Structure formats: structure tokens, C-alpha cells
Amino acid sequence: MGKKMFEFKTKTIVATGLGAALFTLLFMYVKIPTGIPETDIQTAYGVGTFFAALFGPIAGGLLSLIGHFLSDSIQYGSAWWSWVIASGLTCFITGLVYPRMRVEEGEFGVKDALRFNIYQVVANAISWIVVAPVLDIVIYKEPVNLVFTQGVVAAISNAVSAGVIGTILLLLYSKTRSKKGSLSKEA
């Protein structure tokens, strides 16, 4: 029986809450400046995409949307909605890989890592090079050259964060799972 991508079960709710809390904390406190204003390498995307690959697009989208919203609201008093939406979209799109992942069965090989990284790179490109800058212009009337520069830097840095941290977390987590057929009946 295949995984249902848009099921919202108890484990999805728990993963969303836990993931949102981790995302918020990492987004606020564990980031590396890039030199471009308001654009950091965010370790939160490594964790967000990890949760998205394990629990699907609903959990991924909600946890990053909520986490980014809370982080902005706590740090700045209000959310920067164009980037909050782009965060949610990034992990939602990455979560579309969920039915094809075998991490829960103890499998995460080169093909799985490649598949995960193709999804997250595409998600980051769409979210940060297209969606965030366009929404910055439409919602906030931000200068075109600034928002597209920020978008490209965010896409690259978030893809690196998701690629390195997300891949490592998926690999390590897969090692904690029993492989299908690895248990045999003793005679």
C-alpha cells in the first residue's frame, strides 16, 4: 500500500508542531550571514526539508510557514509575508518527494539522496527566485534589483542548507530504522 501524500494523521500534526518549534529556533539563532541584507544561510531549511521528506507536503509546508511567521513576529514584531509564504512553499514542494522516500524502511541510498535534492533545489528555485521577489514587489513595493538579488542568494544558500543538513539527517534517521526483511524468524 502506497503512502498517501495528503493524509493528515496524528503523526503529521505532531511532526508539524515539533518541526515548527525547531524551525523557529533555528531560524532565529542558527544562521550564517551572507553579506546580502536580510539574507542569511538558514539551517532551518535543512530541518524543514527533512521533516517534509519524512511526513509529506502538508507537514513541511505548515511547519516552515508557522516557523518563519513566529520567528519574524518574535524578532521584528510582524511577519514579512512574501518570505513566510516562500518558506511554506519551499518545504511543501520538497514534501512532494514523500511518497518516493523509503527512509522509514531503513533505505536512503544515493538515488534517494539525489531524488530528495532534486526536489529541494527545484523548490528553493521556485520559492526564492520567483515567488518571494514577485511578492516583495507586489506586496511591499520593494526595488526589483534588490529582491531578485536577495532571492538568488536565498535560493542558493537554502538549497545548500537543505542539501547538506537535510541529506545528513535523512541518512542518519534511515540508519535508525529496520530494513524491510532484515528480521528473520529463528528456528
UniProtKB/TrEMBL annotation:
Q: Record's InterPro entries?
A: ECF_substrate-spec-like, UPF0397
Chief place of localization: membrane
Q: Which Pfam families match?
A: ECF-ribofla_trS (PF07155)
List the Gene3D superfamilies. 1.10.1760.20
Q: Transmembrane ranges?
A: 12-32, 44-67, 79-98, 118-140, 152-173
An example Gene Ontology CC term for this record: plasma membrane
Q: How does it sit in the membrane?
A: Multi-pass membrane protein
Per UniProt, subcellular location reads as: Cell membrane
Q: Which keywords does UniProt give here?
A: Cell membrane, Membrane, Transmembrane, Transmembrane helix
Give the family from UniProt. Answer: Belongs to the UPF0397 family.
**Which HAMAP family does UniProt cross-reference here?**
UPF0397
Protein name as annotated: UPF0397 protein EDD59_102176
The organism named in the record is Muricomes intestini
